[in-house]
Amino acid sequence: MQSALEIQGARHAYAEELRAVSNLRSKALVKAFATVPREQFLGPGPWQILAPAALGRREYRTTEDADPRHLYHNVLVAIDADRGLNNGEPSSLALWFDALDLQTGERAIHIGCGVGYYTAILAEVVGPAGHIIGIEVDATLAARARNNLAHLKHVTVVTGDGAMLEPETADAVFVNAGATHPRIEWLNSLRVGGRLMVPLTTTVDAFDHTGGGMLRVTRKPNGYDARFVSRIAIFPCAGARDPESNALLADALGAGSLEAVNSLRTHQHDADATCWLHGKDFCLSISEI
Predict the structure, then answer these.
(1) Would 272 be classed as within a structural domain?
(2) pTM > 0.70: yes or no
């Protein structure tokens, strides 16, 4: 087993690699990845590892031993391999967290917090003056997250359906599962200036993983700015999917560029040439607010 100093060194090198790969702007986020011990959230090794390049094949590799340094690479780690449920790809989460632009003292909601590792990253960024609420629908995972995060007094873990979130003011909402549409409850939770990150996705494989784009929504005094940050493949958000929205999103993804989206509308209006995706309760538009 490696020494604590060697593991700390691996963690710092991992954080610096994420800074370079994901072009991170936030020094606090880099420090968080260099500080939070991933091994304390994933249970004892050996671990089942999935490299990003192997996503289509779903072939896990089991580490040869329980050295925590195996976890400090840009790899996914199985939480439940039979379900294809993983602790996600660090470079992608780092990219999205950087776009979320969290600041010291802010209040954020993490929907789909899993075992809590990335919730702990968010908590490190906002610091003790902030507050992170982690929501997880799977009771077993929620219990693990609650235990893993018990030492952080500014983190609360709730067992429940994050798609049914009761509106409460937040600076940021991060949805860690694929939705076919942004829930109005998530939008209503944002203060003016608040940010929502939500993967808008359609079903893509036998594991019921979904693919599409990570959307960043910012609430402004006069509406919602909306821009896609990246492509994404992710586990589905059960309470935020329906067949009609899935079909509309699939058509939009097939017909238009993610880069064309500039705003999100919630008011009722007839579909027109500016509608990138015209849904029942929302519209993604190519027009600025």
Answers:
(1) no
(2) yes
